[in-house]
Amino acid sequence: MKNGLEDKFVIKDNKKLQMGYTTGSCATGAAKAATTMLLTGRDVDYVQLMTPKGIELTLEIKEKERGEGYVKCAVEKFSGDDPDVTNGALVYAKVSKTNESGLDNKVNIDGGEGVGRVTKPGLDQPVGNAAINHVPREMITANVKEICEDFEYFGDIDVEISIPAGIELAKKTFNPRLGIQGGISILGTSGIVEPMSEDALIASIKAEMSMKVSEGAQYLLITPGNYGTNYLTTALPLESKKAVKCSNYIGKTIDMAIELGAKGILFVGHFGKFVKLAGGVMNTHSRYADCRMEIIAANGLKVGVPNDLLKKVMDCVTTDDAVELLKDAGYLEAVMEPIMKKMLFYVSNRAYGNLKIGIITFSNVHGELGKAGDVDELISLIG
C-alpha cells in the first residue's frame, strides 16, 4: 500500500530527497484508527489522513490492542531522507470513551510513556502539559471528532499518546535543554517532514530563546555551538547553561530575539564563523559564504599590512593560520580593530537599533581576538 509520499521529494544541494511524515501525523493516524475500532468493533489496517500541507497520507496500523473500554493503535514514524532520531519509532494512541451523555465530542489529549512533559514556561504548551504541540492537538481533535460524528457518538473521548522509545530518543534532542522531561515532543506544523529542513532547527532555537525570555532573561547569551560554550566556561564569568546555541543563524536569531521582546544579545563565537559577520553575512554556513580570508585580507590592506603577507593570508585554509601569520608579524591587533567595528555595524544594523549588542570573538589557539559593543555591560546584565 502506498503512503502518499512516493512522488514527494525536495531538492537539497542537487540531491533528490524523499519527504516523510511527522510524529503529529503518526499520533493523529493512530488516534483515528483507534477511535474507529472503538466505535465500530471492526479492525482497521490503514487510515487516510489529510495533512495541513494538503498531502493525503495512507498510514498503516502496525499494532492493535483491545482492552476493557479502550483500543490502542500504533503508526510507525517515517522520516523519509531526513536524519530524524524518531524514524522507525512506534507512536501509539490509546482511545477510550468518557462522559457518554455529553452533547458534543470533547477530545481530551494527554501524553503517556515516552512523551515529554513541559516544566518551563515559554514553549508551545503551558507548564504541566504533555509536549504535544498545538497543531498535532488540532489534527487529533478534528479527526477523532469526524469519526465520532460518522458513527453518531456524542460523548467525550480520551486520547493518550505514547512513544515507548521516546525516553531514550529524547536524550538526542533539544528537549532536556528546553525543560521537557521524560520523553520526546509530538511536533509538526504541516504534518510532513521535509528533509534537511532548516525550519525545524530554527524553531528549536526560537523555543529555547522563548523559554529564556519567559523566565525573565531580557538579555540573551548566544553562541553558535560547542566552541562557544567551552570558551564561556574557561574565559568568561558566565555559565554555559545560560547560552542558547544558534548554529549558523545569526540573522534569524536577531530577528527572533526582537520578536520575543528581548532587550539585548551578547554573541560569543569562534573567529572562523564570526569573521563573516564583518562582511554582512548573517548565515555563516560555508554553503552561503566562505569569505573569511578575503575579509581578513581586505581589512589588513586597510591598515597597511604588506602585500606579500596578505597573499600568504589569502592562501590560508583556517582562520587560526591567518591569525598566527598576522600575530607573528605584529599586525593582528591593528587588523582586528576594523573587523570588530564592521561586525558590530552589520549585527546592529540587522537589529535596527532594537537590541543592545555585544560581540566577543576568539580563537581556540590564540584566545580572545576582539570584542565590540556593550560587552562588559551585557556580561553584567546576563551574569
Layout of helices and strands:
Layout: E1 9-12, E2 15-18, E3 20-21, H1 23-40, E4 46-50, E5 56-60, E6 63-67, E7 70-76, E8 90-98, E9 107-111, E10 114-115, E11 117-118, H2 134-150, E12 156-162, H3 166-169, H4 175-178, E13 180-181, E14 183-184, E15 192-193, H5 198-214, E16 219-223, H6 226-235, E17 243-245, H7 250-260, E18 264-270, H8 271-274, H9 292-302, H10 307-314, H11 319-329, H12 332-351, E19 356-363, E20 367-373, H13 375-382
Parallel strand pairs: 9-12, 10-14, 16-17, 16-18, 18-19
Antiparallel strand pairs: 1-2, 3-15, 4-5, 6-7, 7-8, 8-12, 11-13, 19-20
Report what the structure shows.
The chain has 13 helices and 20 strands. With 383 residues, it is α/β, with parallel strands linked by helices. It has a 5-stranded mixed β-sheet, covered by helices on one side. Strand 19 and strand 20 form a beta hairpin. The longest helix is centred in the C-terminal third of the chain and has 20 residues, at 332-351.
